[in-house]
Fold this sequence. Notes:
The protein is an all-alpha fold. It has a single domain (51-211), classed as Four Helix Bundle (Hemerythrin (Met), subunit A) (Up-down Bundle). The chain has helices at 14-49, 51-59, 63-88, 92-123, 140-176, 186-211.
Amino acid sequence: MSSTVYHDFQYASPSHQAETAAVGMWLFLATEVLFFGGLLLSWIYARHFNQLGFDAGAHETKLWIGTLNTGILITSSFVYALGLAFIRVGNVRRLIQCCVVTLLLGLVFLALKFGLEWRNDFANHLFPAASDFKIIGAAQGGAKLFFLFYFIATGLHGVHMLVGVGLLLWIIWRAQRRQFCALYHTPVHAVGLYWSFVDIVWLTLYPLIYLVGSR
Length: 215
């Protein structure tokens, strides 16, 4: 590639383009923080007034799945960071390998969360709208509210994970066509910011779902 390929006409230099893309991604993530922040604050507020039910709901969650998925996401972010470090020195092959590993870890996370955990939740009658909801008695109302937040929050996180999987496939596709190098890898950096944000959201959800009041 010649130097003219590294940035579009509206940017003064490749570094200007990279900085603009990074700022744009940070602004987008700021809106996501406002979105998830409101949801999580609502969760905490609701729990304050329904502690018995939220504790009963949290007791029904599968701690081992949540903990395993937490380790998987942390590992995936670390592997992707290695890929970004490799492309900064021009190693496209290692970038592709790291993206593939990150992609596989993301798919394992989704399989555990939705293919296993959500399936068990429905089988155990833990969906809040179910007529035969498992938890009965004084804790039922709060438990239903807990699982309402649980399904909304984990569902939205899963959608963001699917978007991240699509972005990883896009990065792999472009890397295979040698569209990235040491001088140009702005999309790799931007996708890394997004993937790390999705990881951080899960690290916030993990204690609310599996730890607070459950053990």
